[in-house]
Design goal:
- The chain is α+β, with helices and mostly antiparallel strands.
- 52% of the residues lie in helices and 15% in strands.
- The strands form 3 sheets. A 4-stranded mixed sheet has the order 1-4-5-8, covered by helices on one side. The chain has a 4-stranded antiparallel sheet with strand order 2-3-7-6, with helices on one face. Strands 9-10 form a two-stranded antiparallel sheet.
- Helix 4 packs across helix 9 (245-270) and helix 9 (245-270) packs antiparallel against helix 12.
- It binds flavin-adenine dinucleotide.
- Flavin-adenine dinucleotide binds next to strand 1, strand 3, helix 12 and helix 13.
Length: 387
């Protein structure tokens, strides 16, 4: 068993850490959190110049064809600096690029992948509907009807990350309502500014510089060839594309734990009470020690899941565990980090309040901790409790 990084991987981490230190300073991230609803274009461009969007693009379309472990090594640094930024770039890479690369026609791949790699396009995925995200198969009522040479989409989506700035949406809709739910869905590539699309804001406490919004489809007409993959096989195709998403979200948890631990560790040594630094109090050391352990555990299982993915082994159990361990570790780290900072933990001048708000979002998205536990036991052979 070899946990060491190659020279190339070490360089990738160094380069991304350097970039994040320079471009995602705590001051700038806190400014974005108060002032913008998505990553500013100039920052997006800097990521593009760095080659971030090219990483996961297959080599035949001009990309670097990086494996998941390598992608995660870079992503970890972004997650530590800002979960909003990580989510914003992650939506285009994880939803846009992956859906096109896996399901796009040759023409769609040839047209869109090089542009995605250059950072020219922003994308999102419109799956969740107001009726519920966990029971997604039972909740989708958005329809796509074939009319002449077009598809006409009607319905409503909610919590769609980056839809307000997206050039394209990957939208999941019912095309075959007479079939059983898992055979009723298809996937579409919808231009973000297509006629009939309306966006509604959803104010929330977390991920402030990466809005997730409502999307209303009112007779949105798209060309027939914008069907991605196979009609009525959308459920299975979507699951296959989305499976690695849990590894990325686990890395978000790792990023938060690392950020909270480092900030609180330093703060505890600088803040004094009763004649010395508060870091000498055993109870605060316990908080820090638990964060430190959670960080190691969450990071190890996340990279293990990525490695299993890259080596073609089953990785679903580890990816699900990683998401759970990292999400719960993130919430623990943010709560205890804030406690270590006393009143300053909730002040907007400091990042801990942002970590605390952001940590909450990954408890239930993209999969809730409750459902993750259900699935872990289903994988172990216990009866399915939810269907
Ligand atoms: C900020 C944000 C960004 C998002 N981004 C996107 C995006 O880009 N694209 C997209 O399509 N979706 C997105 N989502 C949707 C996200 O995936 C859903 O919020 C998530 O799946 C949970 O669905 P829900 O919020 O409807 O909760 P519900 O499904 O209503 O769940 C409510 C509660 O019931 C519990 N529950 C449900 N079923 C069971 C069960 N069988 N056993 C035990 N407990 C159960 C859940 O664990 C949870 O505690 C986003 C959500 C948020 C909040």
């Amino acid at each position: 068993m070899d946990f060491s990084l190659t020279k190339q991987q070490e360089m990738l981490v160094r380069e991304m850490a350097h970039f994040c230190k320079k471009e995602l300073s705590t001051e700038y991230v806190l400014w974005m959190d108060e002032n913008v609803d998505f990553v500013p274009d100039e920052l997006w461009k800097k990521f593009a110049d760095l080659g971030l969007f090219n990483g996961g693009i297959p080599e035949q379309y001009g990309g670097d064809g990086l494996l998941m472990v390598d992608l995660m090594l870079g992503f970890e640094q972004i997650c530590k600096a800002s979960l909003s930024v990580a989510n914003a770039v992650g939506a285009t890479i994880g939803f846009g690029t992956r859906f096109i690369a896996e399901l796009g026609s040759e023409a769609q791949k040839a047209e869109l992948l090089p542009r995605l790699g250059q950072g020219e396009l922003k994308m999102c995925m419109a799956l969740t509907e107001p009726a519920g995200g966990t029971d997604i198969l039972g909740s989708i009522s958005t329809t796509a009807e074939e009319k002449g040479g077009s598809w006409v989409i009607n319905g409503q989506k909610i919590f769609i990350t980056g839809a307000h700035v997206a050039d394209y949406m990957i939208a999941i809709a019912k095309t075959d309502p007479d079939q059983k739910p898992s055979r009723s869905l298809s996937i579409f590539l919808v231009p973000g500014k297509a006629k009939g699309i309306r966006i509604g804001r959803v104010p929330k406490i977390s991920f402030h510089h990466c809005d997730s919004v409502e999307v209303f489809f009112d007779n949105v007409e798209i060309p027939k060839e914008n069907l991605l993959g196979t009609r009525s096989n959308g459920w299975y195709e979507m699951l296959a594309v989305l499976n690695p998403e849990r590894i990325g979200v686990a890395m978000m948890g790792v990023g938060i734990i690392a950020a909270c631990y480092e900030y609180a560790f330093r703060y505890a040594q600088e803040r004094h009470a009763f004649g010395g630094p508060i870091s000498r109090f055993q109870i605060l050391q316990k908080y820090l020690a638990d964060m430190f352990i959670n960080l190691e555990n969450a990071r190890n299982i996340t990279y293990k899941a990525a490695w299993l993915h890259d080596t073609g082994r089953p990785y679903h159990v580890e990816a699900t565990m990683a998401k759970l361990v990292a999400a719960e570790g993130a919430l623990h780290a943010a709560v205890h980090g804030a406690e270590i900072m006393g009143g300053y933990g909730i002040c907007k001048e400091f990042p801990m309040q942002m970590y605390l708000r952001d940590a909450f979002q990954i408890q239930f998205s993209p999969i809730s901790n409750e459902m993750s536990r259900n699935m872990l036991m289903q994988f172990q052979g216990l009866p399915k409790s939810w269907a």
